[in-house]
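Example record

The entry below shows one chain as it appears in the dataset: sequence first, then structure tokens.
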Amino acid sequence: MTTLSTPAVPLPPPAAPLAVPSPDAPAISGMITVNQVSKFFGSIVAVSDVNFAIDGGVTALLGPNGAGKSTLFRMMCGLTAPSKGSIRVLGSDPRTDRSVRGRIALVPQQDALFDHLSAIEMVRVSAESHAMPDPGGVARRALEQVDLADVGAKPVGQFSKGMRQRVKVACALVNDPEVLILDEPLTGLDPVQRRRMIALFHALGDAGRCVLVSSHVLDEVARLGSRVLVIAQGRLVASGDYRDLRTLMDDRPLRIRIGASAPRQLGTALVERGLVTALSLDPHDGPGHLVVDTLDADGLGRKLAPIATELDIRLTEVSPLDDDLESVFRYLVQGR
């Protein structure tokens, strides 16, 4: 995925329903409070002037790979210190307050399991590291929460990607954390597993836990919940309700690539019938292709095939070019 390089700019006021956080605005208090936080690795800026606060429930952190999500999570868990600014979790600095770190759990994106151990053994090790009483019982209950109670003694090294992800989540649940931070936890899960895992996150959030889940997949964020933080190039570019973000995206033209036996004739017909707002026949797209912008994707979808049939034109491709996550960030960072 291409990394965005354009500096963040505010969304169009005042109609834009999503808030664009100002680096100069003071953060309000919450179970997690991130105030003016930056993280540098030499000359590399991984996180830049991030400012937000969240409380109980499920919040999604949406960002492409390399946006700074994992670095931000590591700072929240006290694993690395901010280069600038401050982080408070449950009112304390997780970097210096050992007691608050016992109330936080992190599910890392990296696969960090002992392959020779069974699931129950792996989760028991996690429980013992937290000095939990009855670590065996705690491990069994955690595995039940992620639907892995009956996996037996098979070592986790033989598990599928989705099963390994669920073992990691179980390891994070052993201390009954008040703050649960999950870095791309749905990667590798099948649709049924994903649905059950999201239901678990919501159950934890409904019980008052602060659940922060990162993803680079727009559809996952839609299922995780309405609250979303959007990060790109280490900057928080928007925060608010997911439905408002989706509305913003629906208000701008959708770009579609169409393959056809007579692209010029088809493009002319689409313009004449008001179905597209712009089109191009760039040679870069290859012979027999045109790229169109439309504000009525549903109408274009319904009428494209009948028009092609009417004109005796053969369609070979219809592909959305910017109904993906990268277009969300391009839109938010560059404006309309």
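Notes for this example: The first strand starts at residue 32 and ends at 41. Residues 1-17 have pLDDT under 50 and may be disordered.
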